């Protein structure tokens, strides 16, 4: 499996397994440990989760699996996120220093581990004070509780602000990108990351499964073109989508969200697919949202 260098101290597998949907997978700790080993056997050693997934239940389930098979933790890079909370079902953000430090300790406990390889601020917080947030991230790094820090869903302004407060040490922005979502192309975030040689992690590369929905007009239009390209390459359409994401010079790392290892294989296979330049643009414009002038 290809590895992607995020910093001098951290590399990630070029395909990451996401665990957002884990609380719907109906796996006990043994089954989850088995699934995690299936990922590791394939070279997919980076696991992504978040404090808010399943309202903290997902981190707990993962921690139980790490206890069942204690060999797993040292063979993976563990990514988790903080900053989203809910008060009686009302969602809000908190990226203050004290809250981040408290959350990190709580996540470590749930995950049954004493360090997090990559700790992300989950969403851009309108109340973000980059200097205060950076204070917590720097402290957690200096204590060895967190290996590297990054963010998720940030626009270029907030990314730049927090990165300056972090002395340029943010290693990623985890963002949504798929054949029907171009927010971060249009905001300039992808250009920013490409220029600064920072690799984004890409969530919902298959639009959370929506891309296969024939009743969704945008997805149906995009999928028809993707299926045509997949035929040309004798590949699965999902593989073509992952290859499209990995084609970009920014060096993006897709997160597969499936509970099915054979669907994870479709992402891994994309590392060997070489699209033509015109095919990249065929997918870029297929949904009709992005114009080629
Ligand atoms: N930072 C953030 O704000 C953020 C937000 C969302 C997600 N994430 C991360 O990104 C990861 C991936 O996101 P995602 O789960 O939305 O990714 P995704 O890979 O786009 O979607 C996964 C979903 O698509 C389904 N699927 C896959 N192949 C399919 C097919 N051929 N036909 C029908 N359905 C298919 C899967 O079902 P099966 O399981 O049945 O295969 C699963 O429900 C998450 O686990 C999480 O770690 C981060």
TrEMBL record:
Top-rank lineage group of the source organism? Bacteria
Coiled coil regions, renumbered to chain: none
Which InterPro entries does the entry mention?
AKR, AKR_Detox_Biosynth, NAD(P)_OxRdtase_dom_sf, NADP_OxRdtase_dom
In this chain the NADP-dependent oxidoreductase domain maps to 16-284
Which Pfam family, any one, appears in the UniProt record?
Aldo_ket_red
Query: Gene3D superfamilies given for it?
Result: NADP-dependent oxidoreductase domain
Q: Name one GO molecular function term.
A: oxidoreductase activity
Gene Ontology cellular-component terms listed: cytosol
What protein does this entry describe? Aldo/keto reductase
Source organism of the structure? Porcincola intestinalis
Species lineage: Bacteria, Bacillati, Bacillota, Clostridia, Lachnospirales
């Amino acid at each position: 499996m290809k590895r992607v260098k995020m910093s001098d101290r951290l590399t990630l597998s070029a395909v990451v397994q996401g665990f957002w949907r884990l609380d719907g997978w109906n796996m006990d700790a043994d089954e989850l440990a088995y699934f995690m080993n299936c990922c590791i056997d394939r070279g997919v050693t980076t696991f992504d989760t978040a404090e808010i997934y399943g309202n903290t239940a997902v981190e707990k389930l993962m921690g139980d699996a790490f206890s069942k098979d204690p060999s797993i933790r040292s063979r993976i890079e563990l990514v988790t996120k903080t900053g989203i909370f809910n008060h009686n079902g009302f969602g809000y953000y908190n990226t203050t220093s004290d809250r981040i430090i408290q959350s990190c300790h709580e996540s470590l406990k749930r995950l049954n581990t004493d360090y997090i390889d990559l700790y992300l601020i989950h969403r851009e917080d309108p109340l973000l004070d980059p200097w205060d947030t950076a204070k917590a991230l720097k402290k957690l790094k200096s204590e060895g509780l967190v290996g590297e820090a990054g963010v998720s869903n940030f626009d270029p302004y907030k990314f730049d602000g927090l990165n300056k407060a972090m002395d340029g040490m943010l290693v990623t922005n985890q963002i949504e990108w798929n054949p029907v979502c171009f927010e971060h192309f249009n905001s300039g975030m992808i250009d920013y990351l490409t220029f600064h040689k920072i690799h984004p992690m890409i969530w919902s590369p298959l639009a959370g499964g929506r891309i296969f929905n024939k009743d969704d007009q945008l997805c149906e239009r995009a999928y028809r073109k993707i299926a045509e390209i997949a035929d040309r390459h004798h590949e699965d359409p999902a593989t073509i989508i992952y290859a499209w994401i990995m084609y970009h010079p920014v060096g993006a790392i897709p997160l597969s969200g499936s509970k099915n290892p054979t669907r994870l294989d479709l992402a891994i296979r994309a590392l060997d697919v070489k699209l033509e330049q015109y095919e990249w643009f065929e997918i870029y414009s297929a949904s009709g949202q992005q114009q080629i002038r």
